[in-house]
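In response to reviewer comment 3 from the previous cycle, which asked for concrete evidence that the modeling workflow produces usable outputs, we include below a single protein chain processed end to end. The sequence was submitted unchanged, and the resulting structure tokens are shown without manual editing.
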Amino acid sequence: MIRLDAVGKTYRTRRGDLVRAVEDVTLHVQNNEFVTLVGPSGCGKSTLLKLVAGLTPATRGTITIRDEPVREPFGDVGFVFQQPVLLPWRSVLDNVLFSVEMLGLEPRQYRKPALDLLELTGLSGFETKYPRELSGGMQQRVAICRALLPDPSLLLMDEPFGALDAMTREEMSLELLRIWEERRKTILFVTHSIPEAILLADRVVVMTPRPGRVARILDVHLPRPRTIETEFDPRFKAASDEVRALIFTRRAER
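The workflow returned the following structure tokens.
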């Protein structure tokens, strides 16, 4: 589904300095795979997501989605940000429909699929509510519905639960797993949370401090479907310890 081969990205600051955000990243993501990116702040995780989405061009290397080079925003990609970014003057249903409007599609044809998604995410009955009337977790559910409505094969998620409290974050992680089990999208998910990265993923990509490189890619050998009890599995702790050691050893080396 996604191929990144020797990808690098260098930014020029307003002062004219060059900053290497990511360097020599090679990563291949299979169809319907759930891959998480984890690493220290500023290591280029979000930059990689923007590169895959075509929101910014790579300085070096190649990126393809289904063998098509990524040179601009790709139509078959849904993006979920850390903040829900809902339009406050639009109802829940109209916020979900906004994604198809932006693609030039007829919203009325997507009303039923939008209502089905709201039901899937536990928001049935909130169609006419406005963002200010929802909790943070409910707003993020709306954002996920909005991204899923055009039925993209690839979902890019940039710390979508980072602004939520611990309990809501845990609830949303399990909700996302349930949706993924039912809809089976390819997901590339950025997080700072090591437990979240392991709970969700088929593979965890551990990145180094900036310039971000792939330190290691770990297969997560935990059965699905996963629940909160999965975190008590000895294999979960072993994976967490390995990721934590990779991140903090790299920090210490710097």
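DSSP finds seven helices and ten strands in the chain. We consider this sufficient to address the reviewer's concern, and the full set will be provided in the supplementary archive.
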